[in-house]
From TrEMBL, chain A:
Keyword Coiled coil among UniProt keywords: yes
Protein name: Hydantoinase/oxoprolinase family protein
Keyword Glycoprotein attributed: no
Domain named Hydantoinase A/oxoprolinase: residues: 247-535
Organism of derivation: Hoeflea poritis
Coiled coil: 1-28
From TrEMBL, chain B:
PANTHER family: 5-OXOPROLINASE RELATED, HYPOTHETICAL 5-OXOPROLINASE (EUROFUNG)-RELATED
UniProt lineage: Bacteria, Pseudomonadati, Pseudomonadota, Alphaproteobacteria, Hyphomicrobiales
Protein name listed in UniProt: Hydantoinase B/oxoprolinase family protein
Sequence ranges assigned to domain Hydantoinase B/oxoprolinase in this UniProt record: 19-535
Length: 732, 626
């Protein structure tokens, strides 16, 4: 192993090279854009890009030739688009192609999430209707925790501070009628004062604006007039639904993350165009697993809060389909946090709302739970209790774990993995990232000293505690939803997932633990394989008796055309598009609504009466009763979708049980209080059918997997490693 | 007479050892079933009280009727013991009569449904749920007449009755019930929504049994009950000192809506061995109006348990397991145990005040863990009439106020202290009722000053768009939500009606059938929470921040000894004022804001505009007004 001085020198060289690339990039940005080449989506290469807290992962799909390429580069938190561009350069170089051959870039991003998690969003000003400035302060008056819950509950302050909330003198009625017109000179004056206080984004959330948003729009105009650079979000455009608190909160969150997200997306788009041509199509993965155009992503970033995790779940779904597992717990462990989700019968659970930390918004998302535990989570010992705690503070990508030698000094989970030999200091991360065991041991030594125990014991303690934290998250999506984790397989991915998957599977009894090939780029897989989908919707609260088949049919057609237009403009031929109408309907007087899916042909044939019948049937099935009450429409939606892309699985030649040809060398691993002898394997040399006896470490370009003693890893036909207890029937 | 349970298989269950993982899974599956019951109910119910405000409470009990998951403890044991008839597979029971279920529900508006769950011929569990119906008939819209003298004026009384018999709906019974309500559509939908929730619980219970086996399922429930008992035993011994000393506390309901008051509730607390004793003997006798509260002893145990366990382990799944560790004594004829046929409909104030009482009682042993008095009520606003199209409209709405200052921090502004409750979105109100909500805001300075300030109350300005009538049930217009440990009391509640001709009047706290016309605006102002700890110790910058948020006024900042100048803290003036105020601070643990009830009554007229209520006159053996 190199001396510390050598490593620092090596790092400085890389830094210099990196800065050189940056300079080139900036020079490029100034030059004239490349000539426009006509290009249609689906004809060239698709690139999936996932930006995590520590690494940026890329996956390129070459459908024509049935090939995939992957690349991994360090994330650049100050401006993550730089990391993306580095990755593109790398993947093109390694694949031997020109960036201009790439026609579509699909991107899952955690920029929005991290902005909320780290309280790093914009200073948001809020405009409400007169009499409603406390809309976020009072919220829905709900106190969590059941009987007596108020004793310990403290409310987090609103994301738009109350002192930066102003009231507009105006009023809309529930039917959209103007009750009192907008006092423009007054709001202009008050907005000026608000801008003077340094707000960085503005939300306008007026009462009853779901019925008529004319005043919201007018105030937005005035605001742009005064401060053209401050992004304005109006509530009716973000969430055109009844309920003033939910609409205001969702829109404020949109404003809160918007400056960060739009700066990021617009930089990225500009740079992509510089490299790939004006026609390259950038799309951002939404929280619900759908795709959003770059512009929409910039305007409505509230739909991206779960974008990164959605990519992981989509990727896990894809790989699980290949490996024929239908029930899965997904476990995506990155540098700063871990996301878990549950997939049953190959369908990921979704929900109508998105939650990040204390923030809940009305935007659909895959049901992903996040815990602040990752490879970069910092371990510490509080003076008072002498307990060992891990996270949620994280060393992130910068300075990162001590072992990465980028200036980090605090002991992290990664450092513990290094000390224990799980992450061998002679294995490589991201191809060219060096690891120092000395630095790791030095950092973990702080814990050992505080607890007066040997450094290995301290390291193992850190791992056990972080595993327990993640186990809690897995219980949230399984046991606490009434699912038995013993009936699920566990798939571990993200940079650190494969290191912890075996131990976690043992904790919750979910077998096998699946280590997918290229686990770090699984999210990017999800991004790249997601279908193009677009929808257009409108609120339409009307009793069925007050409308007609013809009227509703006309509106649905218009929605279909609107949704299809964008898809067509993105290069999806109309012949390849499928259309579904969704009609939200309920009994008049109910608060809920059910969504009835119907094809345009069926709607043509059955009309609203047919929708009513389907609704009654579904209501009875779901809730055991139907009513003879009047039906009421709530909303109409048209969903237009591209045909499903064929999957690409790399075909690998089968091998026998003997994995010894993939052995790199022997190594020592500390587990259950002892140092044990094991082998390091090179994943690239493993073949289907190979068996790896634990303890073993399997390294590959972008990650490292750990197989514990008394466990065995079996390579399946598509290259997954399935880890089983050695005495499990499936292990034999 | 005990109900006869008809089972085709009468062999007893075997108690077996359940491994901890399975126990956790059963526990969480039941917890989740309860959450699902709520979700189904809120989605399918129609009345705003249930669908938006969540005034409904589910429960799953074991085969003996002991609550395993739920909020308020089990009333099933009492029902099983009192019901004269059979309990069979496919039966569902309904009642709304507090007097025939020992207060399991405490007024006629709450329809309680109970369903035995059978598996292969054996009773394995119970599911139950009650929900507040907007109207159950009686003399006034909303069925909550302040001036009722007997329960018969408050709506139709349904004793425990099989509404489903062997799976068949007794639709004639349901018809009778619906024909006695002003909003039959809502009641019908809410009724079926509750049935749907019960059926869901049944499905989940059976799934658990299929998965783990019936003995494991039953044993797991026993284990869960035992686990609670052990936890509560430790808590009781931790927070209630043993010995001769009895803690004592009292609080009041301001009036009975008929000019009498305040009514006192008082309780003593002590511990003998591992058993905690609560004695309500010093409380006033029952009232002649509808403010009586038939307090179910088991439910009180649950209040006590939930209140304390949250301080120690909020994650625990709370249940009935610890009931043997608590003794509750409420004498008959007391305002908390009125005799039939006393009116009960407006018991909400007394029910809420129980929590202030309990806080004051338990906190004496541990002042650091003591909360101030909060929004201990669920005040009602009702508005009804015929609109221009001749259609009947009727709204029942619950208001919220200030959570008190607590050791944990400031009290949230305008929040609910009742579990699961949420406010009705004002856009919903305007879309479905002839109302325009002109203002929905917190009331500056209404929270009591303290190191941790009490939460502010809320002002709601209801503009009526149709001719109709309003009713109000509220309290704390006379006594204050008290402060503790140096904290000050919160502000009282007020109601002001502004007519289109510009005239204004203060509306009493409890009133029915006030006629209103289009354009009239009612300002319904709820009360704030009491303050916790010495307000002079509060960081002046925090006070300045509250002022910039208009939660505290510049004048109100002086209650904290903080002087502001152009929005900034004037350090010098603040120090001077604080020094001056420090000398005259009260050293009392509780700051009620008055010396005695007599002293309070003397300033009643000047401060509230209303004559003080007359001291209630109690008669021995009084049951109900003639």
């Amino acid at each position: 192993m190199n001396s510390t001085d050598d490593l620092i020198k090596h790092y400085e060289e890389r830094l210099a090279a990196f800065e050189e690339r940056l300079r080139r990039m900036e020079a490029d940005a100034g030059s004239a854009p490349a000539p426009v080449r006509p290009m249609r989506a689906g004809t060239g290469l698709r690139l999936g890009v996932d930006v995590g807290g520590t690494f940026t992962d890329l996956l390129m799909l070459d459908e024509k030739n049935g090939r995939t390429y992957t690349a991994k580069v360090p994330s650049t938190p100050a401006d993550s688009s730089i990391g993306v561009l580095n990755g593109i350069e790398k993947i093109c170089r390694e694949a031997g192609i020109a960036p201009t051959d790439i026609t579509e870039v699909m991107h899952g991003t955690t920029v929005a999430t991290n902005t909320v998690l780290t309280n790093a969003g914009a200073l948001v000003g809020l405009v409400t209707t007169k009499g409603y400035k406390d809309v976020l302060q009072i919220a829905r008056s709900y106190v969590p925790g059941g009987l007596g819950g108020w004793v310990i509950w403290n409310k987090t302050p609103p994301l738009a501070p109350l002192e930066l909330t102003i009231e507009a003198d105006e009023r809309m009625g529930a039917n959209g009628e103007v009750v009192s017109s907008l006092d423009e000179s007054r709001i202009r004056k008050d907005l000026k004062k608000l801008f003077d206080q340094g707000i960085e984004a503005l939300t306008i959330a007026l009462f009853n604006s779901y019925a008529n948003d004319a005043h919201e729009k007018r105030i937005a105009e005035i605001a742009r007039d005064i401060a053209p650079d401050i992004p304005v979000s109006t509530s009716a455009s973000i969430m055109p639904e009844m309920y003033e608190y939910e609409r205001a909160e969702t829109t404020v969150v949109n404003s809160y993350v918007r400056p960060v997200v739009s700066k990021y997306v617009s930089n990225l788009q500009r740079e992509l165009r510089n490299r790939m041509g004006e026609n390259v199509l950038l799309q951002i993965l939404r929280s619900d697993g759908g795709l959003s155009s770059a512009q929409l992503a910039m305007d409505q970033p509230v739909n991206l809060l779960m974008s990164g995790p959605a990519g992981g779940v989509s990727g896990a779904l894809w790989i699980a389909k290949q490996a024929k597992f239908e029930n899965l717990l997904t476990f995506d462990m990155g540098g700063t946090s871990t996301d878990v989700a549950l997939i049953q019968n190959s369908v990921a659970r979704t929900r109508r709302e998105t939650r990040v930390a204390d923030v809940t918004v009305r935007a659909p998302s895959i049901d992903v739970r996040t815990v602040g535990a990752g490879g970069g989570s910092i371990a510490y010992v509080p003076e008072l209790t002498k307990a060992l705690r891990v996270g949620p503070q994280s060393a992130g990508a910068d300075p990162g774990p001590a072992a990465y030698m980028k200036g980090g000094e605090e002991p992290t989970v990664t450092d513990a993995n290094v000390v224990l030999g799980y992450l061998p200091s002679d294995a490589k991360l991201g191809g060219d990232m060096a690891i120092s065991r000395d630095k790791a041991a030095e950092a973990v030594g702080k814990i050992a000293d505080a607890l007066s125990i040997p450094v290995e014991e301290a390291a193992e303690g850190i791992i056990k505690i972080v595993n327990e934290n993640m186990c809690g998250a897995l219980r949230l999506v399984s046991v606490e939803q009434g699912y038995d984790p013993r009936e699920f397989a566990l798939i571990g991915f993200g940079g650190a997932g494969p290191l912890h998957a075996n131990a976690l599977a043992r904790l919750i009894n979910s077998w096998p633990a699946i280590i997918p090939p290229g686990p770090g780029v699984l999210c990017a897989y999800g991004d790249a394989t997601t279908q193009l989908r677009n929808e257009a919707s409108q609120t339409y609260v009307t009793r069925v008796a007050d409308t007609s088949d013809a009227e509703v049919g006309k509106m649905l057609n218009a929605l279909r055309d609107a949704a299809a237009r964008e898809l067509t403009s993105e290069g999806v031929a109309q012949s390849g598009q499928s259309v579904i109408y969704q009609i939200d309907i309920r009994y008049h007087g109910q608060g809920m609504k059910l969504t009835i899916d119907v094809s345009p042909e069926d709607f043509e044939r059955e009309g609203l009466a047919g929708i009513g019948r389907r609704f009654d049937k579904e209501h009875e099935q779901l809730f055991t009763f139907a009513l003879d009450a009047e039906h009421e429409l709530v909303g109409l939606r048209a969903v237009v979708q591209d045909a499903e892309k064929s999957f690409i699985a790399e075909n690998q030649g089968a091998g026998g049980a003997d994995a010894s040809s993939a052995r790199v060398h022997t190594t020592r691993i500390y587990t259950d209080g002892n140092w044990q002898e094991g082998h390091i394997y090179d994943r690239d040399r493993l073949r289907p059918g190979n068996r790896i006896e634990g303890p073993a470490v399997v390294t590959e370009m972008d990650s490292t997997a750990l197989i514990l003693p008394d466990h065995v890893g079996v390579v399946d036909d598509v290259g997954n490693i399935l880890i089983w207890p050695a005495d499990h029937e499936n292990a034999r | 007479m005990v109900a006869k349970i008809i089972q085709s298989d009468t062999r007893p269950f075997n108690r077996i050892a359940v491994d901890p993982i399975t126990l956790d899974i059963v526990e969480n599956a039941l917890r989740n079933a309860r959450t699902e019951m709520d979700a189904v109910l809120f989605r399918t119910a129609m009345s705003p009280g249930i669908r938006e405000q969540h005034d409904a409470f589910p429960m799953i009990a074991n085969q003996e009727g002991k609550m395993v998951v739920g909020q308020f403890g089990s009333f099933l044991y009492g029902f099983i013991n009192g019901y004269e008839g059979t309990i069979e597979d496919g039966d569902i029971f309904i009642t709304n009569d507090p007097y025939s279920c020992n207060g399991a529900v405490s007024h006629l508006n709450d329809w309680l449904l109970m369903m035995p769950i059978f598996h292969e011929g054996k009773l394995v569990s119970w599911a139950a749920m009650f929900g507040h119906m907007t109207d159950v008939g009686g003399k006034v819209p909303g069925s909550l007449p302040t001036d009722a003298k007997m329960i018969y004026e408050e709506g139709m009384i349904v004793p425990p009755t099989k509404i489903f018999r062997k799976g068949e709906l007794a639709d004639e019974v349901l018809n009778i019930m619906l024909h006695n309500c002003r909003m039959p559509e809502w009641n019908k939908s809410d009724f079926f929504a509750i049935i749907a929730a019960l059926r869901l619980a049944e499905r989940r219970v059976r799934e658990n049994i299929d998965r783990f086996g019936v003995d494991t399922y039953i044993s797991a429930m026993w284990d869960m009950l035992d686990r609670n008992k052990a936890a509560m035993s430790a808590i009781i011994q931790m927070i209630i000192p043993e010995g001769d000393h009895k803690a004592h506390f009292e609080d009041w309901i301001d009036d009975d809506g008929m000019g009498n008051g305040p009514y006192r509730i008082a309780c003593s607390l002590w511990r003998e061995g591992e058993v905690a004793h609560f004695d309500f003997s010093d409380s006033d006798p029952q009232s002649l109006s509808s403010i009586n509260f038939l307090l179910n002893e088991e439910m009180f145990k649950m209040f006590f348990g939930a209140f304390t366990i949250n301080l120690f382990d909020p994650q625990i799944l709370f249940n009935d397991g610890f009931y043997d560790l608590v003794e509750v004594h409420i004498p008959e004829g007391c305002i908390l145990k009125p005799k039939k046929p006393a009116a009960l409909s407006c018991r909400t104030h007394m029910l809420g005040r129980i929590f202030d009482l309990m806080g004051g009682l338990l906190g004496q042993g541990a002042p650091d863990a003591l909360n101030a008095a909060g929004f201990s009520d669920s005040p009602h606003f009702m508005y009804s009439g015929f609109n221009e199209q001749g259609e009947w409209y009727q709204l029942f709405q619950i208001g919220f106020g200030g959570v008190p200052g607590r050791p944990a921090g400031d009290g949230p502004d305008g929040h609910s202290m009742w579990p699961a409750f949420t406010n009705v979105p004002n856009e919903f109100l305007e879309a479905y009722f002839p109302l325009r909500i002109r203002e929905y805001a917190t009331i500056p300075d209404s929270g009591g000053a303290g190191l941790h300030r009490g939460g502010n109350g809320i002002t709601i300005a209801y503009e009526m768009m149709e001719k109709g009538e309003i009713s109000i049930h509220d309290d704390r217009w006379l006594t204050y939500p008290w402060g503790v440990n140096g904290g000050e009391p919160g502000m009282r509640s007020t109601k002001r009606l502004v007519r289109t001709d510009g005239s204004e009047e203060n509306i009493p706290s409890k009133c029915d059938r006030i006629a209103v016309n289009p354009g009239d605006i009612l300002y319904f102002n709820t009360w704030g929470g009491g303050g916790w700890g010495n307000p002079l110790k509060r960081d002046p910058e925090l006070v300045a921040l509250d002022v910039s948020r208009k939660l505290v006024s510049e004048e109100g900042a002086k209650r904290y000894g903080v002087v502001l100048s152009r929005g900034k803290v004037d350090r010098k003036a603040t120090e001077k004022l604080r020094n001056k105020m420090a000398g005259s601070q009260s050293k009392q643990l509780f700051n009620r804001g008055f010396e005695s009830i007599e002293e309070l009554k003397k300033r009643c007229k000047a401060e509230t505009g209303f004559e003080p209520p007359a001291a209630p006159v109690f008669h021995r053996f009084m049951q109900a007004a003639e």
